[in-house]
Amino acid sequence: MRAGLWNRIRDNVWPRMGVRRYGLYLRKRVIRLSASPHAIAAGVASGAAVSMFPLIGLHFILGFVLAFATRGNMIAAAIGTAWGNPLTFPFFFAASFAVGNWLTGGGGVSDSEGAQLQATGTQLSHGLFSEGFQAIWPTFKTMMIGGLPIAILVFGVFYVAVRTVVTRFRAMRQARLMCKHPAARPQTAQSSTN
């Protein structure tokens, strides 16, 4: 039976299993990848960092490019792009605009765009889209400028956090394996001479 349009939209915006459980699922997927801690951390950080830019639809591609440049894992980069989703994009884009506006000295909204923002919905959509990309270029440029320092900060935070989690998980797993299989422990020099 096909799900209705509303159910498909809801599943894309809010995971059926819940946001907390979905986050735990992604965490387990990341720590169980069979790559080095650096590759996993660089991949996740790449995906999360590119989510700061207002380039919806290009985040996977940009995440893969950045992961390739930093020798990150591509699967981890795809998982990292989940950081940017319909629930978080408004906050990311508002922060990008605020930082970009501060960095450029407050020139982020064009005169025509500012006037359109004060108009009603029909006037806004008619005026803003009739002028094409030139009408939104100042805002887009401001968001791109502001997104860069935020993306660098997000990359650093995610890299350190993910690398720490993956390294600890692997150390704990190795310790559990040593407890379960004592024969797998390295032989000491004294026990090998007996």
Task: Report on this structure.
It contains 10 helices and no strands. The chain is mostly helical. It has helices spanning 5-13, 19-31, 37-50, 59-69, 74-80, 89-103, 111-117, 121-130, 133-180, 189-193. α6 packs across α9. It has one domain. Helix content is 72%, strand content 0%.
Strand percentage lies at under 5%
| Number of self-contained structural domains | 1
Low-confidence stretches: 120-124
Mean pLDDT over all positions? 77
Question: What structural category do the secondary elements indicate?
Answer: mainly alpha
Tell me the Rg in angstroms: 23 Å
Overall shape: it is globular
Distance between termini?
A: 70 Å
Give the total of beta strands: 0
Biggest sheet, in brief? none
Order of helices and strands: HHHHHHHHHH
DSSP summary: helix tally: 10
- Level of helix content? over 70%
